[in-house]
Amino acid sequence: MKIVRESPTSAIVSFKAGSVEPAHHHTFGHDLVVLKGSKRVWNLSKKAKYDLVVGDYLFTPAGDVHRVKYFEDTEFFIKWEGKWDIFFDEEMEVAKSEISKEADDGFELVK
C-alpha cells in the first residue's frame, strides 16, 4: 500500500496487483471511488461482494467487516469521518485462503 496524497479525512491510495487486505473494520464509515485498476471487496457483515472498476463508488458503513483483493495495480480516493483507525479481524494467511475458495463463499455479487 502506498499513500499518494493524504488530508486529515481523505487520501489517494494505491495497491499493486495481487495485493490483499485481510478482513478489517473501522469505527467510521468510508466512501471510495476507484481512479485506476480494479478490485473486489467482500463485505463479510453483509455477505456481499463488489467488483469495482474505474469510476465505481462504494460506501462501507462503520463497523462493517470487509476484505479486499486487487486484480491489477489500483488507485482509489477514500474519504472517512473522524480519526483514522483500522482493526484487523483475520490474519493474512486466512484472508488468502478464503479468497482462494471464493467460488464457494456464499456471498452475493452485487452489481
TrEMBL record:
Pfam family, one: Cupin_2
Domain Cupin type-2: 12-69
Gene3D superfamilies, sorted: Jelly Rolls
InterPro entries: Cupin_2, RmlC-like_jellyroll, RmlC_Cupin_sf, RpiB_LacA_LacB
Name of the protein: Cupin type-2 domain-containing protein
Organism, as annotated: Salix suchowensis
